[in-house]
């Protein structure tokens, strides 16, 4: 393509752009601007809702951690270890509004919160005796085991609800005749000493104590 042809092509392109611009009215331009403003406001509102949900989850996690510690340290002189500043940190209302922060600032704030929470627990554990630390760790392990076992039981009962009730009276309590996926659940060490009903209707599991009874 010669220089004259390239110049002619540029003139055609400029003319086409001018025609497109001249065909747009002021009302259309204003409508486009309004649409963009609305989209930006909608994105900001969605981000605020997501951030509010993240703050709520973090707040509940902190409250649950504090509750577990206090339960483990009842009648202990370290029951009130959390100072006033840490208590204020639990309330999401004092956090900086999301619209005043960008993504990098939010990530930095989340990292600071994690580090602050880690240091707070380090301070608390440093003031505990070895016996108290053992109680706290045992409580955490017990809670994780309960959550894991409850999830397995939920899956079993949901599976039974979808396939219909099974007749467990025919095997005379012989666990070797139980299907392998149920045998695995029933031979878990944490289930020893528990009596599982022969036929269980679909229920929502609230507490393991509701499912296990002394033999």
TrEMBL record:
Compositionally biased tracts (Polar residues): 160-174
Basic and acidic residues: compositionally biased ranges: 107-117
Region of interest: Disordered: 91-117, 155-189
Protein name per Swiss-Prot or TrEMBL: Uncharacterized protein
């Amino acid at each position: 393509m010669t220089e004259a042809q390239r110049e002619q092509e540029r003139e055609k392109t400029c003319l086409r752009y001018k025609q497109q611009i001249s065909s747009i009215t002021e009302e259309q331009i204003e409508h486009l601007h309004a649409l963009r403003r609305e989209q930006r406001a909608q994105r900001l509102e969605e981000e605020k809702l997501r951030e509010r949900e993240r703050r709520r989850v973090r707040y509940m996690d902190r409250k649950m951690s504090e509750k577990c510690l206090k339960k483990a340290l009842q009648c202990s002189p370290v029951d009130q270890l959390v100072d006033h500043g840490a208590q204020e940190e639990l309330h999401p209302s004092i956090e900086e509004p999301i619209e005043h922060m960008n993504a990098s600032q939010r990530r930095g704030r989340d990292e600071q919160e994690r580090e602050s929470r880690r240091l707070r627990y380090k301070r608390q554990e440093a003031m505990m005796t070895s016996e108290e630390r053992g109680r706290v760790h045992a409580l955490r392990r017990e809670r994780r085991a309960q959550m894991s076992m409850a999830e397995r039981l939920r899956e079993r009962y949901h599976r039974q609800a979808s396939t219909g009730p099974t007749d467990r009276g025919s095997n005379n309590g012989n666990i070797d005749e139980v299907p392998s996926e149920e045998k695995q659940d029933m031979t878990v060490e944490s289930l020893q000493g528990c009596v599982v009903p022969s036929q269980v209707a679909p229920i929502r599991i609230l507490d393991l104590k509701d499912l296990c009874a002394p033999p």
